[in-house]
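Support request from a user on the community tier.

User writes: "When I paste my structure tokens into the form, the page sometimes reloads and wipes my input. The last time it worked, I copied everything first. Here is what I submitted, just in case something in the input itself triggers the reload:"
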């Protein structure tokens, strides 16, 4: 207990020293810097490059392309979108917590989204899982994605990409959720 208390006091003292240092630096530079210069931002790495180091990449994997064709055949009366960010499908229902929850889902995407012809109503979110979904970190990410989608009340349907279904099996499985 004594070492924990000592460590706590040391951390508090360090925080106080850093805060004092930062505040003293702001005070001294605030009086010396003209107002126009304070609004100038430091350049960000790469801003000065004429061309950024990007190149096109395939939109979907080969198995995702095959499954997309099956999904189109199985559900011809619906719109199908691929690689959709979750932030385009769901939103936080607590305005004061929106930024926090947006950050929890902002890098997640759905493999496919089945949408009514009205282009507004999401029918189901569809995931095609392959062998990479057996990794512990991927399982955790899948659990978070599942929780987010199901919390919003959207059906989530998962297919095993290693056992590619046919169009009839896809249709049967999707209709089970509707």
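"...and here is what came back when it finally went through:"
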């Amino acid at each position: 207990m004594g070492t924990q208390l000592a460590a706590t006091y040391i951390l508090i003292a360090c925080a106080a020293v850093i805060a004092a240092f930062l505040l003293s630096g702001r005070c001294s530079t605030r009086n010396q810097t003209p107002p126009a210069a304070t609004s100038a931002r430091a350049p960000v790495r790469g801003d000065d490059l004429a061309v950024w180091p990007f190149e096109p990449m395939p939109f979907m994997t080969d198995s995702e392309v095959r499954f997309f064709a099956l999904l189109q055949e199985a559900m011809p009366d619906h719109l199908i979108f691929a690689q959709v960010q979750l932030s385009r499908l769901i939103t936080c229902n607590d305005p004061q917590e929106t930024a926090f929850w947006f950050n929890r889902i902002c890098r997640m995407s759905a493999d496919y989204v089945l949408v009514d012809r009205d282009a507004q109503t999401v029918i189901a979110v569809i995931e095609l899982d392959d062998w990479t979904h057996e990794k512990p970190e991927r399982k955790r990410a899948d659990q978070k994605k599942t929780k987010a989608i199901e919390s919003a009340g959207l059906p989530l349907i998962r297919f095993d990409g290693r056992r590619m279904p046919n169009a009839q099996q896809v249709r049967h499985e999707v209709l089970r959720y509707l």
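Agent notes: The reload is a front-end session timeout and is unrelated to the input. DSSP finds six helices and four strands in the chain. The chain has a mean pLDDT of 84. Escalated to web team.
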